[in-house]
Write a structure and sequence with these properties.
380 residues; alpha/beta; 14% strand; nucleotide-binding; EC 2.7.2.3
Length: 380
């Protein structure tokens, strides 16, 4: 992927007196009183008045240090008037673009209306960069320059940089419940990493593929051959692939389940594995001690249940410790981010990715339409 122009490349002449359309990702969770509960993270849930951006104005104003004005829409005459009235250095927040179905359809007319409000375009919404929408891809056809914002740039530097040119040894920790949702990532990373650690519910498909009994643990029966081929691929590439040697098992899927630790080869009938065990934590930690770059995507167990969070928490603590020693630690979006935040270690990591789907697709080596649409950086 070609390096993209970013805000940092623009000169005063590019910006003075210009109107800038900045696409940002403001998905943050709100409580019942519309207070922001966590301003680093959120999940979009379709289009309803309760997804209005109005409650975000006070916090945005506070963060930017100026009074942010808010429009009731993102296109139309009313918005045009407000845009015309913005003083230099002023900020106008447009209403949620997802209120228009044309946004996700990448409708050219809608994109043109958005673009008509400004002179140039900055995309800082990494979390939606894997989708070609009107406000992420469509507008770039009508606005020049179109550049990456600072957050977008940081995401690309870390995620693309780590994968294409890592300091070695380079390890990836991949977890999560299903192999199927992580096939792309595992296959892509097997081409790049020196060490691959697997955890989470997906390990039972690998165990079963190796002929082990997995009790009532989660298994994707139709992925057993795939698991075998991934293990063979790791071997042929010389990648050290570590599966947990012991697991914490439970008699039911519940926070108050009875639990015990057993060897991976000794899961009794009727029991299910819900976390990696202490031996695995030790082996994984020792492997990670040898590394210079680590990407983590997906928890080691059902960390939402305190009883089965030990593996995930231990990995978070290990990465925080390694960061302090100069190792580049990248938390690749999704549940791993929640786990690191839950452990109170978010600020210790080199980089925490803000995009779930976008980080996953980037790690899979897929091009992101919202990034491809931006101007290429000119060779210095």
């Amino acid at each position: 992927m070609a390096t993209k122009r970013s805000v940092g490349d623009l000169k005063e002449g590019d910006l003075k007196g210009k109107k800038v359309f900045v696409r940002v990702d403001l998905n943050v969770p709100l409580d019942d009183n519309l207070n922001i509960t966590d301003d680093t993270r959120g999940r979009p849930k379709g289009v309803t008045p309760k997804f209005s951006l109005k409650p975000l104005v006070p916090r945005l104003s506070e963060l930017l240090g100026i009074k942010v004005e808010m429009a009731n829409d993102c296109i139309g005459e009313e918005v045009e008037k407000l845009v015309a009235a913005i003083p230099e250095g002023g900020v106008l927040l447009l209403e949620n673009v997802r209120f228009y179905k044309e946004e996700e359809k990448n409708d050219p007319e809608f994109a043109k209306k958005l673009a008509s409000l400004a002179d140039l375009y900055v995309n800082d919404a990494f979390g939606t960069a894997h989708r070609a929408h009107a406000s992420t891809e469509g507008v770039t056809k009508y606005l020049r320059p179109s550049v990456a914002g600072f957050l977008m740039q940081k995401e690309l530097d870390y995620l693309v940089g780590a994968v294409s040119n890592p300091k070695r040894p380079f390890a990836a920790i991949v977890g999560g419940s299903k192999v199927s949702s992580k096939i792309g990532v595992i296959e892509s990373l097997l081409e790049k990493v020196d060490i691959l650690l697997l955890g989470g519910g997906m390990i039972f498909t690998f165990y079963k593929a190796q002929g082990l009994k997995v009790g009532s643990s989660l298994v994707e029966e139709d992925k057993l051959d795939l698991a075998t081929s991934l293990l063979e691929k790791a071997k042929s590439k010389g990648v050290s692939l570590l599966l947990p040697t012991d697991v914490v098992i439970a008699d039911k899927f519940a926070p108050d389940a009875s639990s015990e630790t057993v060897a991976a080869s000794a899961i009794p009938d009727g029991w299910m594995g819900l976390d990696i065990g202490p031996d695995s934590i030790k082996t994984f930690s020792e492997a990670l001690d040898t590394t210079k770059t680590v990407i983590w995507n997906g928890p080691m167990g059902v960390f939402e249940f305190a009883k089965f969070a030990a593996g995930t928490t231990a990995i978070a603590k290990k990465l925080a410790e390694l960061s302090g020693k100069g190792v580049t630690t990248i938390i690749g979006g999704g549940d791993s981010v929640a786990a690191v935040e839950q452990a109170g270690l978010a600020d210790k990591m080199s980089h925490i990715s803000t995009g779930g789907g976008a980080s996953l697709e980037l790690l899979e080596g897929k091009p992101l339409p919202g990034v491809l649409a931006l101007d290429d950086a000119t060779a210095a």
